[in-house]
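Next comes this protein:
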Amino acid sequence: MKSMTGYGYAIENDKAYRLEVELKSYNSKFLEIVHNMYYVFGSLESEIDSKIKAVCSRGHLECNVRLTEYETPIEVSVNREAAKAYALAFKELQEELNIKAEPKFSDFLNRDGILETVKSDKAELYKAKLFELLDKALASLLSAKQRDGEGTFKDLTELGNKFKTSLAIVNAKSAELEVYIKQTLKERIKTLESELNLDQNRFVQEVGLLLVKYSINEEQKRLETHLKEYDRLLSQEEPVGKKLDFLCQEMNREINTIASKSQMVEINLQVVNMKDCLENIREQVRNIE
């Protein structure tokens, strides 16, 4: 189990440059990648996204790439054909104007088009190192998310056990429902005994109708099934955040139904406990990838 929150960082500090990759991940229903990087790396954005998506399925992720160059590499190209053309032109002028002086080397350097500075593709120049650092930062991020996820797993396991304890009490008390309804009905009609001819068969029918109306057997069974699925999902290595969120919605529906049907104080108390557990579970699930 992995958390959605985490931090990863990697740096290469060379004598000529410093390159940093920083990753920050926060809670989000979907995977959102936001880039804040040195402009020359814009062309690599889609490749960086592919790397991130391969290991992250949910979360708001900030990717920061910073480059500081201490020594800017310069590449110079020589246009030899242009230099030859200038040399020929100088020679022709010498002969035509009868000039004895020879052209200096600086005369060539000052001419346009002989020496040109080549602009290097920095994205390609640093690409290999950038992706090496990205892999390290991702490994650091995943390690942090895993550590945080272990704590969340422990909390979810404890909350699940508390929920099971409350459900077990509900199951035990619901078995007493028939006795409770009979006693309640008898107490209610006791004051009217002198005015009513109490038909025992009718009384049994009324008890049966109330048992059907207030029965929570189906809700109990579904909650037990949901709890088995809950335990199964917690044991998975793959991302389960969305599945757990949906499961919590289903469990909440069953709890609300039990609350609307319950006629026993003891069950109502456990419904409150289950709601509290479920709310805490949902809070934790919001941080699971």
Remarks:
- The mean pLDDT is 87.
- The first helix runs from residue 45 to 53.
- The two ends are 8 Å apart (CA to CA).
